[in-house]
Design goal:
The chain has 201 residues and is an alpha/beta fold. The chain has a single domain, classed as 2-Layer Sandwich (Nucleotidyltransferase, domain 5), CATH 3.30.420.10. The chain is 36% helix and 15% strand. The protein contains 6 helices and 5 strands; from the N terminus they run E-E-H-E-H-H-E-E-H-H-H. The protein has a 5-stranded mixed sheet, sandwiched between helices. The radius of gyration is 17 Å and the shape is globular.
Length: 201
């Protein structure tokens, strides 16, 4: 396991930011911002995609307990359709940063695109959730809070199997769209069906 770096700029209060749900066909995009204390101990902390569901939720509890500040925000599917998923992901990050009760001196952003938030300096880091602890922590919060949301709306529309696929384009999800059409949670600007499934949405 690659050891995560605790900071990029020593002496600055850094917030790690990440999102979850960019590639989904349904549901909001979630983002989280996390400021970890200087001397934290989270030996299992890693990119959320590399962790089991049980470990993700255990780490979420630990992160929430020890963080100097943390926040989660989301942007719904209707807004995603209006401004596109990249802009919506950045907006969700901005909303999460805004909710922090400790103002960061620097932002560590997962990925390669971001828009400035106020006058706070930032650095975009490709695959940053596997490189920096604060981004990994943010990835866990964004992922688990989004999963909770998708499991909740699954109860309204169980045919789409969101409890399992979380809105991602699985064969079962696409087949349900083909058979029953879309829900109020689907992203209409996304390619909801593959070439083998044709339907007027």
């Amino acid at each position: 396991m690659v050891k995560l770096k605790k900071y990029l700029n020593k002496g600055l209060t850094e917030a790690g930011c990440d999102e979850a749900g960019r590639g989904c066909l349904a549901g909001p995009v979630f983002a989280a911002a996390v400021i970890l204390p200087e001397n934290f101990y989270l030996p299992l902390l890693d990119d959320s995609k590399k962790l089991s569901k049980r470990i993700r939720y255990e780490l979420r509890d630990e992160i929430v307990a020890i963080a100097e500040s943390w926040a989660v925000a989301c942007v719904d599917n209707k807004t995603i359709d209006k401004i596109n998923i990249l802009n919506a992901s950045i907006l969700a990050m901005h909303k999460a940063i805004e909710k922090l009760y400790v103002e960061p001196g620097f932002l560590l952003i997962d990925g390669n695109r971001f828009k400035p938030y106020k006058s706070i300096s930032y650095n975009c880091i490709i695959k940053g959730d596997g490189k920096y602890s604060a981004i990994a922590a943010a990835s866990i919060l964004a992922k688990t809070y989004r999963d909770d949301f998708m499991e909740k709306i699954h109860k309204k529309f169980p045919e789409y199997d969101w409890a399992n696929n979380k809105g991602y384009p699985t064969a079962k999800h696409r087949h349900a769209i083909f058979e029953m059409g879309i829900t109020p949670y689907h992203r209409k600007t996304f390619r909801l069906l593959n070439n083998q499934m044709r339907i007027d949405l």
